[in-house]
Input
Amino acid sequence: MPHLNKLRTAVPGDSGGDTAARSLARLRTALTLFFALDGFLFAGWVVRIPAIKEQTGSSPSDLGLALLGVSAGAVLTMTLTGRLCRRFGTHPVTVAAGVLLSLSIALPPLTHSALALGLVLLVFGTAYGGINVAMNSAAVELVAALRRPVMPSFHAAFSLGGMLGAGLGGLVAGGLAPRTHLLGLTVTGLLVTAAAGSVLLRHPSPTPAEALASDEPAPRLMDRRTRGLVTVFGVIALCTAYGEGAMADWSALHLEQDLDAHPGAAAAGYSLFALAMTAGRLSGTALLQRLGQTRTLVAGGLAAAAGMLLGALAPTVWLALLGFAVTGLGLANIFPVAVARAGALAGAGGVAAASTLGYGGMLLGPPAIGFLADWFSLPVALTTVAMLAAGAAMIGYAVRGASARDASVGGASAREIPGPEAGGR
Output
């Protein structure tokens, strides 16, 4: 790949600049496909959880323990993937994790006990954690090279992939066995990984020195205060990602078990949630420009809290589906805002720290819901999503002044998602 300095000095019509632009465009397309594939495969698994639960004869707490395998595998991998990316590069690690994720999704239908399910989900979680850290790291490098705020588009692709995966799962849930369905997803995943991965492997990512080269002020160093604020935004990301994980793993079961929904309608719950989240993220930049980051975060958290209370406690399927849609719209842009604020404070290190906390919430939430459902009930357990969303809104409002002042020293990350607060409101 041409050097970033060359990209920045290229003028229109310059052949070197055109070649570099085409190379970066191909990289962006390939990374977008990986984000979409990640959401597609994950949603394809989660809409079949009710069938897998029945197949393994698991109670809610047994299923929660089995789902902990996803969390454990992912969290352990996230702590190691950064080192692998530094040693081998973000692109090869992304491709390797894509292959493992595609293969491991075919394993859950082969199990017949909660213990066996937990063990294969450990493998699935390892791949899921690895690809999320690797492809987000690759995306951060690409955003630095492009010097354009394209990160929300990658997260929108993940949401779109989740919507498509859940929609397909809903269509086939009534007539296709989980083994056949998930094996088909394996084949699809390997084909997409081969196509998009070949682009990543042919085009190395910018070196760290190139990615950080800029005529803009650098984000502040990770002193104690900065680290504390980055952690706060990581907690906000965790609170909202907890809701995403809960919706992914428990929404279909809630609709089918508590509201007697048809399996297809139950699967449509997560599909509707993913559709609303995709729409929210696609319109996120305009919303942020109009309301600013703090107002968007607070309004989103409160909307998600109200929507999840409706989705969890509604007496009918249609009201629950409406609640899930409102929840998706509310949660859509909170994670990107939190990560952008962390990046404004501490650059790529802040993005990595906040993202790891956020994905930890997505992966640790489902088993927590399982335990709470066993102790109380699934609807009551799902109200914790509303509590954490409201908590994220309150935390975001509480740190609005400090984060805005500290972000004023940031560079590109501070402006990645523009809004009135970026100037120090």
Summary: The chain has two domains: 1-215, 216-425.
